[in-house]
Every structure is written in C-alpha cells, then in structure tokens.
C-alpha cells in the first residue's frame, strides 16, 4: 500500500512570530490546516469538497510536538500524510521542516470525524463518496 | 445631545506582540471590534441583536492612527464613541489607552452599513429597529 | 497534596468563529494560553515572571480533545490544573467549559521546558526559583 | 517617473472567514502586510532589510475601504504601490482583487515611519540607505 502524502510550503508572516522572535506555538495548528488543505486540493478531499457532499469534518483531536523554533524570514515545509484507519475518521500525520535546511521542527497529528451538515449528527460510517475515495487512493 | 460612549478593558495576549515586543498593528482592529461589541452589549446593538432583525452590519471603512506602542503585560482601555449621522450607516470613533497610565496609544474609526441578511442587498434607509434605537438613545 | 488550579473566563470574539459558525479549533490553543497566564498571575509564574529570571518556557507539546463546539456569543471557562512532575518541565491540564451551562467542550494538556534566555540552551534541572515555587505551592 | 508596484497572490485560509462565511475585515490588514513584504522582497526593503540597518519601520496609519466580500476558497491578489513623498515616511497604496474574476474588493493605504532600533527614537530624515534606494528606484 502506497503512502498518500502532500508537501506544501508556507511563508511565515511577521505577525506569526512572538516577542521571543520565534513563531508562536499556536500557529503550528494553522500550518497543519494549510497542509490538510493542500492535501485536500491534490486528492479531492478539501473542506469545500466535503461541503458539497453535505458533510462537515470537524477536528476532534490535534496534537503537536515542537522540536525546533521557526523565525520570521523562514518558510515552513508542511508534509501531510494520510493515515488509513477502519473507523469513520480521517487521520493525518504532519512533519514540519524549516525550508532552508530541512531541519525537522515539529511533528503532529489530527483526527476528524464526519457530521451531517444539516443535522450536525455524527456519521458512524464513512460517507459513500469518502469510501469511494479510499477505494481509489488508499487500497 | 449627549455623547453615547462605552469604555472596556482588554488584556493583551502574549501572541499579540510581535518580534519587536510590541503589539502587532493589525490587532488594533480587533480591539476596535472588542470596543464595538462592548458598546453593543451595553446599548443593545451587538452583532447578535442585528442578526435577530435579519440584518448584518459589515465594516466598509476602518482606519487607525498609531501613536504609542503597547507591550505584552499591558492592558488596553478601549473607548468607543457612537457618532450620529443622517445616512443609513453606523459610525464609531475609538480611543485606545494604555491601562496603567492612561497614555493615548491610538485613535481610529469604523463605518458600517446595513445589509439584508438573506439577500445581502444594501439597505438605503435605517432599519426600523435601529431608527427606534436612535430615537431612544441619540436624541 | 492539594491540586493547584485556576479558573478564568474568556469571551469568544466574533472573529474566532469560522464559516460553520463555530469557534475554529486552532483558537483553543489560545484559550489554553489564556488559562496558563491567569494561573501564572495567580501563582506568580507567568511569562514575565520567568523572563525576570532569565528563563523562557517554550511549549514542547500541546494537545486538545474537542468534545462540543463553541459559538460566537458564548464565553468559555478555562480550568488550568498544574500537574506536578519530577523532570525539569511544566505540565498543565486544561478543561474548557461553555460558561452558560458548564458543558465540557474540550480537554487538553501542554508541556513546557526551561531555556536559558540568552544562550537558548535547555536547562536539565528546574531553575532555583521554580524549585522554591514548587516547595511553596506543590508540596 | 515610473510607478513602483508589486503584485502577489494570497490564498484565503478557512479560519480567516467568519460566521457570515466571509473574510473577517481585520484580516485585510494582514493582506496589506503580505503585499508590503512581497514588495519589500522584490525591491530590497523588507522588514529584515531594515533590521540590518538598525531601523524599524512601524505603521503609524492604516486604513481600508471594503467594497466586496471575499470567501473561503477565493484567493486575493494584492497590488502594492509605493507612493513617493518628501517626508521621512514610507507610504503604500493597496488594491485587493478577487483572483478568480479580478473584482476590486478593497483599497487601502499605510504609512510607516523610521525609528532607530536601539533608542526607539523617531528619525526625522530618511536613513541613508533608504535615500539611496529612492535614488535608485524612484527617481
């Protein structure tokens, strides 16, 4: 089984660095989202693709391990890896690298579930279009 | 005619200060919004009050003049002053002070218009409930 | 041993809610920081207290489990609990509640380490003032 | 005299749109900064170029006129135009366009002054390197 992966680069904004001169830790959650969206565009499962299917995919778990700091002037390379699972969930793993020298600066993961957009109820099974997506890309 | 005014205090967050150790200028727009919301709560014209009337009040103009810097550890006092006008608009003026010594750090203003929430069309006259509000508070 | 805890309330800003009308998940990391800072003010170990001792305390791990959504108009109650540990680290646990009905909306934790502010090197032992703090408050 | 201009494109992030589904007005200030930075990279006067010269260039005035809304899924084209002036200031004008159809969505301007980085005192004349820059590019 091949690993589904996307790599995208994000420019660090001046206002994302804090008084210590380093990127504030909360922004890494944003870089993960940038990674998920780039992955979603590449493989057809972005937020807007889900909306069209009347499904929303809220985050139920997010975590980040910070290894090195990032500074204003750096760019961050976001590697987003889809982690297959049996349950009605979407799991991604992330590796963040400093663009200039490819130092690993952080790792993380997020878990999303499926909600019916109108009723906001949890879907206990994968929506049909996502099952098809898995058939096409994951297996 | 009396001046309609609200004063609220906002704690500056660590992540709102930039690598120069001072609050990033973009956040002042947020403090203006904090001021408008505090004003809205006090006088019954917050965002949610407008929603109930099927009206949204987007910003069409915002400006800020920066006089002194704010640091992490400071609190900012936001003075929000309603500026009456004939047109179907809402104008506010803002004065931001450092809480500790009441130094004036910035002034600004915003203008909002009325849109029908469903059709997103511009209302050329004040909505009835806002006209009533003006009768009650502004004259 | 008594549990060291702080409880603070944070008003949700309009711009913290996303197109789904609910607070964007990344902002919870900010509420954790609001909680840590309120705890730090109460017990004398805020960011600025560390700076004075020439120590910075970067986050090396953060995680959040999302259980319910928050909306604009809600306030969030942040419960911050200090978790004692032997290592040269600071661990906090967080419980976020919707202020109106005390529903638990999220739980999380963060880990911080100590760096010398000038050399940016990791301190392998607790700084003296933090050891004193632990003697005073934790034991 | 030729007009100095840069055009850059910024992807709108999910978390930049508010509960009305449109980009929160405060983020436009950020797009202006993205524009200034892209201009600065192109012409050698980014924040970091100033730092190297021991000069910081804080914003003293910012304003934005909002004409149309932007949605998540849109990209915004930021046109940044340098406006020559005699005083020791940097003035930029901005035009924001929706990338898909080039609708003008907002206009704005910012003014920056020069401060000595160490003393934080206002420079009443252009720093030498900026005077050279003007000789080279503006005249």
Automatic annotation (TrEMBL), chains A, B, C, D:
<dbReference type="InterPro" id="IPR050563">
    <property type="entry name" value="4-hydroxybenzoyl-CoA_TE"/>
</dbReference>
<protein>
    <submittedName>
        <fullName>Acyl-CoA thioester hydrolase</fullName>
    </submittedName>
</protein>
<keyword id="KW-0378">Hydrolase</keyword>
<comment type="similarity">
    <text>Belongs to the 4-hydroxybenzoyl-CoA thioesterase family.</text>
</comment>
<dbReference type="InterPro" id="IPR006684">
    <property type="entry name" value="YbgC/YbaW"/>
</dbReference>
<dbReference type="InterPro" id="IPR029069">
    <property type="entry name" value="HotDog_dom_sf"/>
</dbReference>
<dbReference type="Pfam" id="PF13279">
    <property type="entry name" value="4HBT_2"/>
</dbReference>
<dbReference type="GO" id="GO:0047617">
    <property type="term" value="F:fatty acyl-CoA hydrolase activity"/>
</dbReference>
């Amino acid at each position: 089984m091949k690993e589904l992966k996307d790599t995208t680069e994000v420019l660090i904004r001046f206002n994302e660095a804090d008084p210590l001169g380093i990127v504030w830790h909360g922004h890494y959650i944003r870089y993960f989202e940038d990674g998920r969206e780039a992955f979603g565009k590449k493989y057809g499962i972005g937020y807007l693709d889900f909306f069209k299917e009347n499904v929303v995919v809220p985050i139920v778990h997010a975590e980040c391990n910070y290894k090195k700091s990032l500074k204003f002037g750096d760019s961050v390379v976001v590697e987003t890896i889809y982690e297959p699972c049996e349950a009605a969930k979407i799991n991604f793993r992330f590796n963040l690298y400093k663009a200039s020298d490819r130092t690993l600066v952080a790792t993380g993961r997020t878990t999303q579930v499926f909600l019916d957009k109108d009723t906001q109820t949890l879907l206990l099974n994968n929506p049909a279009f996502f099952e098809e997506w898995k058939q096409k890309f994951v297996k």
